[in-house]
Fold this sequence. Notes:
Elements: H1 2-20, H2 41-55, H3 61-83
Amino acid sequence: MAEEKATQEEATPEAKPASEEKPSAPASPPKKKKKINQMTLEEIEERLKYVQETQGGLDSLYAQHLLQRKAYLLQQKSTAKKSK
């Protein structure tokens, strides 16, 4: 049995390098966290793409808040065009 344990321990270090290889991230997250209310439309769209790729959808509460902010910014943009 001692020989079996030794062979198992020898086999596990070989498996570690394979697991240490990390796949490249789909998109890089922003370096500094920013409140949703302070984000611009471009920043909102970038975060939505990142959330979609990392979480697999837009069902999270964070994604829902981003979508609300995007709708608000688009509404502000359209009303500003109408007033001019």
